[in-house]
Specification:
Length: 86
Amino acid sequence: MLLSLLFWALVVLSSVAALLAAAWLLKELTMGLCFCRRTLKGKTVLVTGGTAGVGYEAALEFARRGASVVITGRNMTKVLTHASMS
Ligand SMILES: NC(=O)c1ccc[n+]([C@@H]2O[C@H](COP(=O)([O-])OP(=O)(O)OC[C@H]3O[C@@H](n4cnc5c(N)ncnc54)[C@H](OP(=O)(O)O)[C@@H]3O)[C@@H](O)[C@H]2O)c1
């Protein structure tokens, strides 16, 4: 009886651990992925620091979704290069 209880307790605990591990793995693998497909047509977005890094990636995504994107920057060459890429 005791052995059977112990067995089922282990089964439940290992199932919970496996579920938690799967949830953590899913979170790690999908981190940073954006599944939102909301359109931004008709919107204008101003991105400061849109010539590099996070700002640039955000500007690209806004443009992909149909927004008119304005980026600012201190270096005109970088601004024009990045504006033409989107
Ligand atoms: N990357 C990350 O993992 C991360 C994580 C957490 C927080 N952050 C924060 O998010 C921000 C952006 O990070 P990032 O990695 O995308 O940086 P980044 O690649 O260095 O991008 C910097 C952008 O900001 C502009 N910029 C820099 N200094 C400026 C200034 N003094 N005046 C006006 N514009 C300026 C740059 O424009 P120019 O073309 O004019 O140089 C460039 O477009 C930073 O504040 C950073 O601390 C980043």
